[in-house]
Amino acid sequence: MNEIIPNKSSxxxxxxxxxxxxxxxxxxxSIALGGxxxxxxxxxxxxxxxxPLFRRPPNDxxxxxxxxxxxxxxxxxxxxxxxxxxxxxGISAKSAAWLRRVNEEQFIAFSVHCTHMGCPVRWLxxxxxxxCPCHGGVYYAxxxxxxxxxxxxxxxxxxxxxxxxxxxxxxxxxITNTL
Length: 179
Ligand code: FES
Fold this sequence. Notes:
Blueprint: H1 17-54, E1 61-66, E2 75-81, E3 94-101, E4 107-111, E5 122-124, E6 129-131, E7 138-140, E8 145-147, E9 156-157, E10 159-162, E11 165-169
Antiparallel strand pairs: 1-11, 2-3, 3-4, 4-9, 5-6, 6-7, 7-8, 10-11
Bound molecules: FE2/S2 (inorganic) cluster.
FE2/S2 (inorganic) cluster binds next to loops.
């Protein structure tokens, strides 16, 4: 007569209490290891994404070019990268300023953003005026308001000459004035 051997892998088979407690132990170890792996991978990732939000904006000087690159009396548009922007800001981190060489050593710079609602102003050299295309704001060459809705003058940006190089003070770029 054939002997019937119970199939231990069958769900119908009963596991011994020892076997059950070992399974539970391995289940718990698997869950703990899974959580540990998630933490090891997740914490640096979250830190990478959130850290820039808490970083203080840099306060450096941005190089614009050599002094000899700029003609005395000319007002030119210079492109700058907003140093306070987030690493993933892309093209939106780009901005601009109006730079004028006043004499051999002296430069002045203005934000391109109109103080009314932030539109970029244009320099009209023939008229000697900054014009805002959005609502007709007009500024004199020194940045003071000539006409239109702008409530205050164009924002002046700090600029200096160091080692023959023209540099603009980095910092958050003002879009509108809140005065
Ligand atoms: S944004 Fe320049 S006049 Fe309104």
